Structure formats: structure tokens, C-alpha cells
């Protein structure tokens, strides 16, 4: 696992803190980096089941969705957290209720068809027999605008307490619908000081977000689409079953099988063409490093970086070999104390496909001398050998800055 996602749609901060402490223990034991992502609740429509009773719904029967949250959830009546549903749907619309996943043979999620709008209530025909269990279920109606804030008061409270305390690397912004949603979230994070470096990933989960995709892409640090992209997001599939470990190892095998048949050459050419000319300085260096690595059949690309940007650009060209991103810490001050940056940048690059970050020793002088670079390179090569991705007589492509120049060099390892 590269990034641990803490989904605040479920559980309280104490529950998530316990999970995080387990993660910290695992990081220490395995000596492997793992980043932390806080996933917001956002503008999520929910069925509220205060009494946590099991609700059985029969196909062809009827059920009423009501904004009256004082009511208990029953087989005939489901209270929801959104007052505007009746104004937003019409007869014939479909509504999905469950825990995210629907396979077609599902018995824990239900499809409804709107048969009548009665005041603020929505009367629905049940399309499949199902049993809903738990304290809340999500409700999806794809084409409608939900008049709920993207960053809810609950989200803000969790971010400013749990998020700040644990210095989260990523904020996953659920139900992002406009670029303005991302701007507002970034403004909120920057006021919290400790989270000014936290990256925002916009989750595109409805038609509204899809319509404004291009502008959201400009504003966000990353995009989450259910499911695929640089990483595979594990959610309800692993949460709900009895075999989480087997499920995750199966997903891992699917990933490696997909990697085997991925046409890297074609992708590289397409990406170069898409970027076009003239390329920026960094883009040119990144694509050259990948081209050289392909041509000489290098086992690994080693990239020296301080912000992580150079390594991310190399990964953008999807090289077939792993990219060791050596993050060089930078000394910075807030006028009161000196500190090293680098840990954030190293952890944040874990979310990018093919990047394996390591943090260089901050005791090395900050200026780039050839002796310093050689000693850091030796550490990186030893790290690669220990990981089992570099062996004797392998070729390695190194991408680094020497003074003002950026250099791509090929080295061949001896015994």
C-alpha cells in the first residue's frame, strides 16, 4: 500500500486514529513509507438509520424517501439528509441506495424508480429485493444538483482537528463539482498553516463534476475517478467482505497482469506528441531520461529532486522500469526556527505510478557538489539493490542537476 485513505463517511476520529497508529507501527516495522489521505464526506446524500435497524425491501413494493430526519428508517419509510430531493427528481428517475457497490446480483443495495413526488416526500417503486444494514447508506441520483456544500462543516472540523494533528499528505475532496470547490478547500487548508503543503485530489462522482472536468483538472493536484488512474482506490470491495487480505492480493495480481500487456512504447510516443514542441526544459529532460532508459533497457531510473516535480514528470511518460525518486531535503526557515523540507514531497510522490521515493540524508550540504551527488547516488543504488530492482551489470539512467545544468547519464554497474 502506497497511500492509506481515511474515509470520514464512516467511523469517528478516535476509530481512525487507532487505524493510523496501527499504520505507523507497520511503517516502522517494514521501514516502508506510506502517505495519509483524508477523504471528506462532501455533498453526499445519505439515508439516516439512527436506530441501526435492518431494513428489508421487497421488489415491486413501495418506499417513501422523506427529509423528516425525526422518523426512524423502516421498510416503508427512509429518512434522508437532503431537503431538496423532491424538487430535483421527477417520475421515472432512478435512485440507487446502498454502500457504493452494485454488481447486479446484489442483495445489500437497492434500485428505486420514482413513481410520485408528494410534497417534500418522494414515493418510489422498489426494483430489486434487498436488505440494508448499518447506520447509514449513500443515495445516488446521477443527474441532479445537490444543494449541499462540497466542504461540509463536519469536514472542516475533522480537517482542522484530526487532519492538522496528523499532518495529512492528501485531502480527497468528495463530490467536487466546480473548480471553485477546490479553490475554497485550498484557501481553508492554507489558513491552517500545517496543511499548506497538503495536496488536494478532486473526486469526480457525478455528472456535474464531469461537465466541469477540465476546469477542475487545472485547479486540483490530482483527480480521483472511480476507479483506475495512477493508483487503484480500494473502497467498499475490501470493506464489506469477509476476505480483505485475499481481495487486496487479488487486486495486486490484476494490476501486475495489466502492467504486462500495457503498450509502453505506444504510450510514450503518444505522450511526447501530446506535449508537443517546443517542450519546457524540465519536460525535455524527463522525456529524454525515459527514452534513454527504454533504448538501453535500463533496470531503473534514478531522479534527484527537491520538490518531487522532476520525478513526477518522468513518471508521466510511464516508463516500464521503476523510478527511484531521491528527494534532496531543503533547509527552510520561518524566521523562528530552521527545518528541512522533503518528507511531505517524498510521501506525496507515493501516489504516482512507478515512483519509489527515498529521502536523502539532510546532513549533506545543500549545494550540489559532485562528491555529494556521488555519495547520494551510491546510497540510492544500494537502496535499489536491497529492493531487488538493481543487480550487477545492470544499466541505470540517472537524472540530476549539476549547477544550473540538468543532466541525464547512463551508468553500467560492475559486480
TrEMBL record:
Cofactor(s), names only, from the UniProt record: K(+)
Keyword set includes Ligase: no
Pfam families found in the cross-reference section: PK (PF00224), PK_C (PF02887)
Domain of life: Eukaryota
Domain Pyruvate kinase C-terminal: 283-402
Enzyme Commission number: 2.7.1.40
Keywords from the UniProt entry: ATP-binding, Glycolysis, Kinase, Magnesium, Metal-binding, Nucleotide-binding, Pyruvate, Transferase
Pathway(s) annotated for this protein in UniProt: Carbohydrate degradation; glycolysis; pyruvate from D-glyceraldehyde 3-phosphate: step 5/5
Record-annotated Pyruvate kinase barrel domain positions: 1-228
Reactions performed catalytically: pyruvate + ATP = phosphoenolpyruvate + ADP + H(+)
Family the UniProt entry places it in: Belongs to the pyruvate kinase family.
Protein name: Pyruvate kinase
